[in-house]
Amino acid sequence: MKKLVLYSDQVPGLRNTADKELKDLINKPHPKIGFIPSASDPERKYFNDRKTFYEQLGMDLYVYFELDIEWESKYIGKLLECDAIHLSGGNTYYFLHWLRKRNMIPVLVQYVAKGGVLIGVSAGSILMTPDISTSSICGDEMIPGETDFSGMGLVDFSFVPHFDSRDTTLEDLKKYSQEKKTIVYAARDTGAIIVNGNKVKCIGDVVRVG
Q1: How many domains does the chain contain in total?
Q2: Structural domain of residue 175, as residue ranges?
Q3: 177 vs 179: CA distance, rounded Å
Q4: In this predicted model, what pLDDT tens digit does every residue of 42-68 receive, in sequence order?
Q5: How far apart are CA 40 and CA 48, in angstroms?
């Protein structure tokens, strides 16, 4: 049964709401979390920031698993031992490129199928959808030559994060929804989506179109 959390951002306003739902999905006293950054984080700035965040939830950010510069395939086993895996924010197109290059998409899909919890923040959330081209709405630059924008397809809707901090309008969302023939969820940074099996639950400021 799928267990997914799609954050726009992990902000204090979501404490005891989406964060509580995350804890309920994992349902372990001291869970281990794996961290996959969208791009190299040599000083571990974002890793350490998220480590502090998860410590406040009683969780241990257990393993750093980079895809591009510091790639180490030997850590895949350690990553998959985690109770949940965090997919960071960043450039979604770049993130997708390296997930494909390292053949990690089927690994993560199988991880979810076996009961692992997948946590996305911004780009990480978009990657769970069938088509990541909502990333352009968020201002992400495409990688030259890339034409396949298929995501992991773990959900059957599109996701737009940071809806309160972009110039994107409701009309833009409606146009995208009609062109792609898909439901679009747009979340402000105080919004998130919880997927538990076939149930989709919106937390905080989330708009549905389609």
Answers
A1: 1
A2: 3-209
A3: 6
A4: 999 999 999 999 999 999 999 999 999
A5: 14
